[in-house]
Amino acid sequence: MRKKVLAANWKMNLLRNEALDLYSNLDLALLNFQEIETVLFPPSIYISELQTKGNLSLGIQNIYFENKGAYTGEIAAAQAKSIGCTYVLIGHSERRELFLESDDLLKKKVNSALAENLKIIFSCGESLEVRTKKDHLSFVKKQLENSLFHLSEKEILNCIIAYEPIWAIGSGLNASEQQAEEMHSEIRYLLAENYSNKISEQISIIYGGSCNTSNAAQLFACPNVDGALVGGASLDKFSFIELAARLK
Ligand code: PGA
After folding, report:
1. What are phi and psi of 6, to 5 degrees?
2. CA angle in degrees (0–180, nearest 5) for 231-237-238
3. According to a count of CB atoms within 10 Å of the terminal CB, is the N or C end of the chain lower?
4. pLDDT of residue 122
5. Greatest extent of the chain over all pairs of C-alpha atoms, in Å
6. Which helix (H) or strand (E) holds 120?
7. Which domains does the chain show, CATH number per domain?
8. DSSP states of 148-163 as a string?
9. 235 lines ligand 1 (CB under 6 A)
10. Sign of the torsion angle spanned by Cα atoms 30, 155, 165, 81
């Protein structure tokens, strides 16, 4: 069966001491949730200082697709791996929108991450404009086709898909259970169509966008929602631990 996944995306938040403090609290508390795959995406400059005593996996919020060389400010997949990362986040809408990352660039990042045996949380999701036109299903389908569905069966099994509607991220307005389940079951169907039922059933599809302690139980009750990628609510240890308890 597929894993339940709870991931924290700290984005560009927290100073060093705040990050170390939150990390040590979470790392210990999450020991009680061994059956869930918990992943933390801290700001990359802190990662090498974080030593897990439990089952919290570390991920990097971004990589560049080249292995090494003259790319000032960038970080390669192999470098992320060398400081203890096992995951990378690719396709987040903030990277797509603010840093103009195209489907084609994301595809290269996906390939580069897998070449270093990093697992991927691949984020997809539509804008409010696209949803208003009722084009959300075909929009997300294209995102997956353009950046992910070229992978082999073995490779796609190292990916978790995060459905994160842009209008829900940081807005306090989460997708309803119906909206989340509609998209998650569509993604599951696309995985079956492009790979097989067996593969599709093994891949975790998680939800992101204003997921918090007041809406998590309803979202996690959806048959195709296997967990969450959490921004704001992951910056508070009590909220994040409560989310793990809801998912368990
Ligand atoms: P949010 O962010 O939980 O603050 O909406 C989610 C994300 O951006 O991954």
Report:
1. -125, 115
2. 110
3. N
4. 99
5. 48
6. strand 119-124
7. 4-247 (3.20.20.70)
8. TTTS-HHHHTTEEEEE
9. no
10. positive
182 CA distance to ligand 1 middle (Å): 20
**Beta carbons within 10 angstroms of residue 83's beta carbon:** 14
Whether ligand 1 lies within 6 angstroms of the CB of 170 is answered as: yes
Nearest 5°: phi and psi at 197?
Answer: -60, -40
Buried b vs exposed e over 42-74: b needs ≥16 C-beta within 10 Å? bbbebbeebebeeebbbbbbbbbbeeeeeeeee
Chain segment 121-160, per-residue pLDDT in tens: 999 999 999 999 999 999 999 999 999 999 999 999 999 9
**CA 230-234-238 angle, 5° bins:** 130
The predicted model scores a pTM of 0.97
User: Quick one: which atom of ligand 1 is closest to the CA of 174?
Assistant: 5
Counting every residue written for the chain, the total comes to 248
Of 27, 32, 30, nearest in space to 53 by CA? 27
In whole angstroms, what is the distance from residue 149 CA to residue 122 CA? 12
pLDDT in tens, 200-227: 999 999 999 999 999 999 999 999 999 9
Task: Mark out the alpha helices in the chain (DSSP H runs).
Answer: 16-29, 77-82, 93-98, 103-115, 128-132, 136-147, 153-156, 177-194, 197-202, 216-220, 237-247
Distance 11 CA to ligand 1 centre (A): 9
Given this model, what pLDDT does residue 180 score? 98
